[in-house]
Each structure stands twice: as C-alpha cells, then as structure tokens.
Design brief:
Layout: H1 2-25, H2 27-53, E1 58-72, E2 78-91, E3 94-95, E4 99-101, E5 104-110, H3 117-122, H4 124-131, E6 135-139, E7 145-151, E8 170-176, E9 181-185, E10 191-195, H5 202-213, E11 219-224, E12 238-242, H6 245-269, E13 286-291, H7 305-321, E14 327-333, H8 342-350, E15 353-357, H9 362-369, H10 374-381, E16 390-394, E17 400-405, H11 410-419, H12 427-430, H13 441-449
Parallel strand pairs: 10-14, 10-15, 11-12, 11-13, 13-14
Antiparallel strand pairs: 1-2, 3-5, 4-5, 5-7, 6-7, 8-9, 8-17, 15-16, 16-17
This protein binds adenosine-5'-triphosphate.
The site of adenosine-5'-triphosphate (ATP) has 13 residues, from helix 5 and strand 17.
Protein name: FtsK/SpoIIIE domain-containing protein
Transmembrane segments: 6-22, 29-47
Binding site for ATP: 196-203
Length: 450
Amino acid sequence: MPDTLAQTLGVLAALMAGLWAWQRFHYHSYWLLIGFPLVALTVRATWRKVALGCGLTKKRQRWWFTTVPGAIASTGIVKVRRRFQRVAVDTKPWMWLPRPTRHGWRVTLWTLEGQIPADYAQAAERLAHSWGVHAVRVSSPRPGRVVLAATMRDPLVRVDHIPRSGELLKVSVGRLETGGLWSIDFRTVPHWINAGATQSGKSNLANALIVGLAPQPVALVGFDLKGGVEFTPYAPRLSALATTRGESVGLLDDLVALMVDRMGLCRTAGARNIWQLPPGVRPVPVVVLVDELAELYLMADKSEKDEVARTSTALLRVGQLGRAFGIYLFLSGQRIGSDLGPGVTALRAQCSGRICHRVNDPETATMTLGDLDPAALVSARAIPAETPGVAIVASQDGQWYRARSFYVSEHAAEYAARTWSHLAPEWAEVIRPGHSSGLDEADLSELLTA
Ligand SMILES: Nc1ncnc2c1ncn2[C@@H]1O[C@H](COP(=O)(O)OP(=O)(O)OP(=O)(O)O)[C@@H](O)[C@H]1O
C-alpha cells in the first residue's frame, strides 16, 4: 500500500512538473490546450453568479411550474395540485462560447433590455476581480452586443523589439494590450499629441518614431527647445532642427511657406492633396517632431508676446492644412493645456492622434484624451511609474487601448540617424520656392500631362 501511494505521488509530481515546464517553455500551446479550456468552463459555469454580483442581471417575470399542497380532504389525505405560478427571476445576459486570444480570452454577450455598453464598462473591474484576471475590456461591435476581452496577465510588462516597417509614414512603435502592434500611421491620423509626466516614456516613443521613419523617404524636422539636448544627436537624419525660440519662428515660417507652395502645386495639377499627384511630381512628406511643446508658448516677458503669437499661428496653420500637403505633426509635452493660451486649445483640436503616458494629475489626462470613455482617464492615471512607455492610446477605430512602446535607446536612435543620414533631404531643397516637387516648370507640366 505505501508503495502504491508513493507511486501515485510520484506520478502526480511528475505530471505537475511536466505541466509547469510546458507552461514555462511553450505558454502558447499550454494556454490553448490546457489553460483556456479550463478557464472557458469556469467562465461559463460562474456567469450567473458573476453577472448577479456585478449588477448585470435583470428581474423578469416567468411562468414557473410548481407543486403546492392542496386542501386537506376529509379522508385525511393530502392532495397535491400542479400549478403554474408567475415568479420574478434574475436573468443574466446570454453568453456565447468564450474564444481564446493571445493573452486571454474574449466572449460576446447579448445585452438585456435597457442595458448599454457603458453598464458593462463600469462593471469591468468587478468582472476582472470575480474571474481573477488582469483586466477586462469592453467593446461593442454592434447594437445589442458587448464583447468582453479578458487579459490573464499584463502583456505590457515586457514587450519585444521594434519590427521594421514596410509602409510609408507608418511605424510600429509598440504593442497594444491585445497583443497586436501599436502603429502610428501619419497618412491615416496626421497629427499626434504625445503627453505624459517626466520620465513617463515620451522621448522613448519619439526615438521609436525616428528609428522607424529614418529608412523611409521622408524629411524629418525637429523642434527641441530643451536647448537641443534631445534631438541634436539625431541631426544627421534631420533636415532641419530648431533649438531656440528665434530658430523656431524661422523654421515655422519655412513650413508655412512650404505648405503654401504645395497648395499651388496641387492647384496647378488639379489635385486635392499631394497623394493625388503622380509619383514623379509628389513632394517629399515632412514629419515635424516637437519636444516640450509648452516651451514654444511660454513668455518670460511682454517682449516675447509677438514671437509667441507668430509661433502659435504658424503651428495652428500647419495643423489645419498640413495633412493635405504632406506635413505631419508629432507634439510631445508634459502639459498640452489651455493654460498655455487659446492657440494650444485650437491646435489640440487638430490632433486626432492622442497618446497619454503616465500623468500626475487628472486634468492632463482629460486634456490629452478629451471626452473619451471615462475608463480611459482612470486607466491613464493608474499607469505605474515602474512601467515607463505604457500609455493610453486613442486609436483610429474610435477605441482606446493600453499600449507600451518598444524600448528604443538613444544609442539605437542615434545609430539609425547616422545610418540613414544619406536619406535626409537638404532643407533648402525641400523649401525651394516653386520646387516642392524638385522639378522645374517644364518637367512639371510634362509629367502632369503624361
Ligand atoms: N517602453 C519602454 N520600455 C522600457 N523602458 C522605457 C520605455 N520607455 C521609456 N523607458 C525608460 O524610462 C526612462 C524615461 O523615459 P523617457 O526619457 O522617454 O521619458 P520622458 O517622458 O521623455 O522624460 P522627460 O520628460 O524627463 O524627458 C528612460 O530611462 C527610458 O529608457
């Protein structure tokens, strides 16, 4: 008997060790074959209790078949009559079968009458605790349906390395909490705000952009009013760099002139934007990276007022019209709020791409993410300091995601800037009046008629 017990214990220990090793060394297959089926069964089995506990059920009147004691007959025999009764029961939203995802599972629910996706979003934290998962995110693919996406553990604690980007003006800068790539695509979302407290990962994201854009046929322009300490090392790949207020005013004037020039080019060609021009005529796209936007707006004394007003107007014009003419903004800063002046509020409205790293105060999150789902604001404030690079991203699909940028050291960005320095077009060439396309009048009309 003791032998049998020892054997059983040995087999169990070997089994446990095997499962541990499987999970440790090939989590993906372990999750699909062992982890997920168990979790799916638990989720289905506990759904009634969990929905009840999270306030997602509704009381409904049901006909209920029951047996009740009837009258006691004179013979002394108890008569039992079958009866249908109307009773109130708790109804849970109908749940489809859960499906596995890379970092957890997702399941579709049919909402009950009077429910909206926000009811489920409000209960998301309760759902996560009830099922013992890292987080539950709620989305609604169509009216009457809600999708719960659960992540078993935070997928953003470690993210891998930056992949090479294939498309023009599109850079994969990190990973979303769903496991998908987080991409910044300037052709879809032309202007971006990148906000966050100090040491939250703003510069790292700018580094990732520089590494991604450096091998592409684009002109990069930097505004670095931290005295140039951030962007000067990347100067070999930058076509222009402003490090003082005075230089910024000049460079912004150049950008506005460039935009006006490109307007003329598009008008001549009958195109609405540079992407409708034939490839041989199309001017090079320009990505403008601004570090510490507030510095462009701060005034030490009244003598700077005119300069600030010029800067503000020029940036706003680029924000309003730049998209069509291939000029894109990526604005980084700790605070990008109305306290910097009305110009900033108007500029912010032009930036549909929003990235909010860790913030110290709720106003900054609100300023950056606007009137997005309140849960996004809560999530932005909950980003821990130990995970720099984690941010809330308002995406082009109207949803918001937690995401983390790939770690890109200054050395990696400097290396990319040096390696691809030959692709940096001369600024004087980019802005040469009447030569947005780099062709003279005769070539231009020949190409347009071809
Ligand atoms: N995605 C990331 N993964 C790992 N480490 C990161 C990530 N992003 C940033 N870090 C690290 O966090 C620190 C702060 O990052 P970064 O300099 O980008 O912050 P910042 O917001 O630009 O700060 P500041 O406003 O002070 O310049 C750096 O040491 C950086 O290496």
